[in-house]
Amino acid sequence: MSLWLGLGLWINVAAFAQPAPQPPPAQPAQPPQQPAPAPTEPPQAARPDAGQPQPPPHPIPDLPADSVLVPNRATYEMKLAVARPNSGIVEVKGNMVLETVDSCDGWEIRQRIKLTFLRSDGEEFETDSSFTSYESKDGLQLRFSVRNVQNDEVEEELRGRADLDSLGGKGRASFTLPEVRSFELPAGTLFPTTHLLLVLKHAREGDKSISYKVFDGARLDGAFQVNAVINRPPRPKPGTPAIRGDISLVRNQPAWGVRFAFFANGDQGAQPEYELALDLLGNGIARSMLLDYGDFAVDAYLVQIQALPRPKC
Asked: What is the mean pLDDT of the chain?
């Protein structure tokens, strides 16, 4: 899987949940702002130590073998984990389907998230977000397409590509939708699958914290600075659904609890724009996720896993 799964899509989902009595206007979504203090805190599992000094960016090591990743189709059940009183959200439910496809010289990621939100004013609305990408296995090329829909109306479409001069070098991102735009990517920028491989490498080597710049194409304002804390895997919560399908993919694998904090590039303030916690296996599959936007957080539990064939290259 691509570790970020088109996280820009999830930012858009969070932006729909503005704490206002009227429906949000149709406009390109923005990252959630730092929430006002409230007595209910988001789950600690998704909060890296924001008040602690942030780790310096890691130098780019050699890429591990991509064979550690397994092609698969994973289905997740998603539901509200917690909502602060000022969030305006009382219920979230839906599902995500994520495909990781080996195409010999690259990895194709296909993701779709369908969610239904219930607001405190009684309004219900639906979001349907899709993200597809192709990333070359040398980590130097990325093509991406994003489509975000709310209540059957297209809110946002992004399309483009990005290229790096070398692994660890500078690069350039170019968009054709929603407008023609290009900008430089700073040295050290990684694409999502490359980042996932490096996270797994650091986890296997016993590293506890890492920091990299990551660009996935799901937003127009460049790369994130992504800080990660690596720990032991979380214990399953009571009521966690059983996993069906090719369950051999999730057995006898090393596992870690990995917590990510996402900062706009160049902004290492105390509060990240959003956070993500994964129960991550050594083959790149996540058994569960917690997406924390500050005002509310959403759980995602793996409920179906299917092995996909490897090509004869």
From this structure: 83
